[in-house]
Amino acid sequence: MKIIIIGGGYVGLVSAVCFANMGHQVTCVEQNESKCMALQKQHIPFYEPELLERFVDVHTNGNLHIQSAISPENFESDVIMLAVGTPMAPSGEADCSDLFNAVTSILTLAKQHATRPFILSTKSTVPVGTGRHIMSMVASANLERPVHVASNPEFLREGSAVHDFFHPDRIIIGTEDVAVFRTFQQLYKGLHTESRPIVHATLETAELSKYAANTFLATKISFINELALLCDKVGADIKQTAKLMGMDGRIGKYFLNPSPGYGGSCFPKDTHALQFIGASNGINLKVVSGAIHANNHQIDHCFLQLMALCLVPPTTVTILGTAFKPNTDDVRESAALKLIDRLLAANIRVQFSDPKAIQTTKAVYGDRIHAHESPYDAAKNSDAIVLATEWNDYRHLDLTRLHAKMKSPNFVDLRLIYSHEELSIAGFNAYILGKGMHHNTTISPPTDIETIQQSA
Ligand code: UDX
Predict the structure, then answer these.
(1) Which residue has its alpha carbon closest to ligand 1 atom 13?
(2) From the alpha carbon of 156, which atom of ligand 1 is closest?
(3) Helices (DSSP H) in 311-448: which residue ranges?
(4) Cβ(255) to ligand 1 under 6 A?
(5) Ligand 1 lined by 333 (C-beta under 6 Å)
């Protein structure tokens, strides 16, 4: 089939490459000239495992074309998918201005060039009611041939997006028209099976299902993160508690890993967007608000524990892992960067390392923080190490070698990679999120951020 993907970002480019990989004829329209030129030269502006090799393959064999604008021949396509950004506005609402501008452009050109019906589908995460609004835009355009509106939300995780595209738990198609659903069944032929179903829903249900899934996952994370704070107090072990919870098939073991908070371009945006959608409809989504509040508080707790562990206020802190999760160079809403902000506010020198995100981190802080390719160099003369992102590169660090590099032997493990025993044997005082603090000194630390920042 012939597909047009509008938007060459994380969602659009991954979808375009994977559809082309399936043998479809795909055109990806990226209106940003520099991004478009880079893609045409087979350069991808972000790291995503497997994507580059697949991109080169389909771009070279002609299944994928990159354009900077919609062209008349694009209207010979079966489906036009909208994969443009819907960023969070200050109010928390999803900003769909780029999406509606794209729809306006498409309908204006369709009036002149469309010679056959086509499907206009959202792929981006959009507020409930967006598809219905696009239907009204289509009606107002008074086109000669029908344009069918659909919603096909993506469930791709950064760092495993290609895998997730080819192994969907479900494919959701929101549309009023069964024939449109049949077209999507053809489009995704080979991907959907009994265990990976393609499901027909209404537009609103498809749109809400995406927010519901992401927000529930974020809520699960905030739940276990708050439980981790309680474990620190009552002496329970959060990792074992999560494991025991997850043994209940109704709960499931995934997304119960304690952390300094969820980040990325989706959970923070989608939780706020759903909260806004609720409020706009007179429903106060209190569980969602709780998940957002807990996530905002989590990094403050981690900062307090770091400062408490050091006892003597640190002058230099090392951050291992600045990407918001492993296997990506994306630092958007990364908990590690929120911690760096608090350290800089306390006039503490920050040294950091990350396997993929050094450049994206430096783009945020410039020379205000100090990058090192090696975690051991990043630890030099440092008062504390914070393991903030669970890269595999950090699962087998030579702790004794790290200890020897440092000025003061403090280790904060926010991703529960190491045990207190391992860290103690290597000579560290340690705080492990949800597993408490172990050090030899009994001085009671300050307990609020203002006191700490004044003393630093
Ligand atoms: C998410 C959804 O998983 C995906 O389905 C959707 O399409 C896009 O948003 P993504 O944001 O790329 O994907 O990453 P994800 O793996 O979900 O992690 C999001 C954040 O949650 C990361 O900061 C991660 O560190 C954190 N997280 C994840 C936890 O803190 N604990 C966990 O157990 C899992």
Answers:
(1) 157
(2) 7
(3) 335-345, 358-365, 375-378, 399-405, 420-425
(4) yes
(5) no
Position in ligand 1 atom list of the atom nearest CA 265: 11
- Among candidate residues 28, 266, 302, 310, the one labeled active-site is 266
Q: What is the pLDDT of residue 446?
A: 44
Structural domain includes residue 208: no
Testing ligand 1's pocket by substitution, the residue of 266, 298, 415 carrying the most ligand atoms inside 8 A of its CB is 266
- Enter the pTM of the model: 0.93
pLDDT digits (tens, 9 = 90+) for 327-350: 999 999 999 999 999 999 999 999
Q: Is the pLDDT of residue 441 over 60?
A: no
Mean pLDDT of 365-386: 98
Range of the domain at 376: 296-455
The total domain count for the chain is 2
Domain boundary among 153, 186, 201: 201
Q: How far is the CA of 37 from the centre of ligand 1 (A)?
A: 30
**Ligand 1 neighbour 75 (Cβ under 6 A):** no
Give 164-171 contacts, CB < 8 A, sequence gap 24+. 165/14, 165/15, 165/18, 166/18, 166/191, 167/196, 168/192, 168/196, 169/196, 170/196, 170/197, 170/198, 170/199, 171/196, 171/197, 171/198, 171/199
Look up the CATH number of the domain holding residue 422: 3.40.50.720
pLDDT tens-place string over residues 102-139? 999 999 999 999 999 999 999 999 999 999 999 999 99
The domain boundary, picked from 178, 201, 224, lies at 201
Is residue 310 among the annotated active site residues? Answer: no
Torsion over CA: 71, 72, 73, 78 (sign): positive
How would residue 451 be classed by pLDDT, with cut points 50, 70 and 90? low
Pick the residue whose CA is nearest to atom 32 on ligand 1. 255
